[in-house]
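Database export, one record per block. Field names are fixed; values are copied verbatim from the stored entry.
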Amino acid sequence: MSNQKSFRGIAREAKARLKSGFWENAKDNFTDEIERARENGMSESRACRYFAGKVTCSIRGGDDDLFYEKVRRMLMTDGEVSDALARLTDRAVYDTLSYEDKQRYTLNLSERYLKALERFRRECEFEGKPRR
């Protein structure tokens, strides 16, 4: 199954999270995050949405996290640039694709970039970090 996990694989990962105490740690972290949000004057509902996104991202992991880190580094050093997709394009892969596949690749890359950008904005807003 190309980029999709099998049901059995997903169940195995869920069982591993249960055994490792992932959810207990997440609950403790959630309580800390809510308290920190209160101290900073942020609404609890916004903090809940932010933390739910963080838990989801940590469960998903893999390529999404690597891609997000690449986007984050770019945004922290150069800010939002007009040639973001060109900077994120893997030229070795892109150059081997047909015209239709290049279109599909660019669209997929654009969607991933917009999701990463939204995540970056949420994290900056929540953590009070300045954006460029």
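Remark 1: The first helix runs from residue 7 to 20.
Remark 2: The mean pLDDT is 79.
End of record.
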